[in-house]
């Protein structure tokens, strides 16, 4: 089970966005599987669509914090018909279903393809992406030696330059001041990207999620890197099970010409994951940096993600076939 199929994540998302007009819950999530709901709307104000999708995602109508590694909880289950979630797919009324960020070729992905074949549904791959992970169950020194020279320099070996600028502290602000942490994360994002990282609803979601994840054994790490008591970088991490998830980051731009503050802070967090017992993976998740795909340079593993659309309506089958390039 990943962080995204925890009851804390699933329930917090639905508590914030589940009241959206025309949302209707089809199955509950948590305990290792994603919930599902239907969203009924008119595409471009004209075409009526009833879309089945995972709790934590929305295909066309809104943007919310990304929910990855979605699935029906089929790991270890043999036979498509043995899952309540798949039965909900069969019994719920929908014209199309969009299943975002499935792990390619995992049991859930294969089961949905089989379901599509059984129900004579059209299948469209509407997106794909790659998530990046660092295996942390070995020795940190071996991991470091396997990195390229410039990568070691950027993420680890320029700490001495940083330390020459003042006293360095790395603290967890979860129990100290989470409100100030998210305010600072937003400030850094506005400076770098021109917009805040989290809006009002997203902030509410993350606070509810963090409050709930502790009850499931999770450990929030709102990491703040400071130089002489001045916060210069923040990392939003959560440990859940044997994995540390890096959900967001932000840092002060143009702080020093030789330093990439966000990279150095990430290096501290990765080393900490190696040093603490019980951590098998530091998960960088999907997505790329502003200027380069830095994750691929520090990752030891990659996970291919795919988003599937299953089309049930005869009209939309015809319409999407017309749109496909020949």
What does this protein structure show overall?
By secondary structure, the protein is α+β, with helices and mostly antiparallel strands. The chain has eleven helices and eleven strands. It has an eleven-stranded mixed β-sheet, with helices on both faces. Strand 9 (243-251), helix 9 and strand 10 form a beta-alpha-beta unit. It is elongated and about 65 Å long.
Helix/strand-derived category reads alpha+beta
- Tally of alpha and pi helices: 11
CA gyration radius, whole angstroms: 21 Å
Query: Percent range for helical residues?
Result: 25-40%
Strand content bin: 25-35%
Instruction: Give the low-confidence spans.
Output: 76-82
User: Mean pLDDT, rounded to whole units?
Assistant: 94
Number of strands: 11
The H/E string reads: HEEEHEHEHHHEHHEEEHEHEH
Largest sheet: 11 strands, mixed
* Anisotropy-based shape: elongated
Strand order of the largest sheet: 1-2-3-4-11-5-10-9-8-7-6
How far apart are the termini? 40 Å
Core attributes:
alpha+beta; 326 residues
Q: What is the strand and helix layout of this fold?
A:
Blueprint: H1 7-17, E1 23-27, E2 36-43, E3 47-54, H2 84-91, E4 96-103, H3 107-119, E5 122-135, H4 140-145, H5 149-157, H6 159-163, E6 168-172, H7 178-193, H8 200-213, E7 219-227, E8 230-240, E9 243-251, H9 261-275, E10 281-286, H10 295-298, E11 301-311, H11 314-323
Task: Give a concise summary.
With 326 residues, the chain is of the alpha+beta class. Helix content is 34%, strand content 29%. The radius of gyration is 21 Å and the shape is elongated.
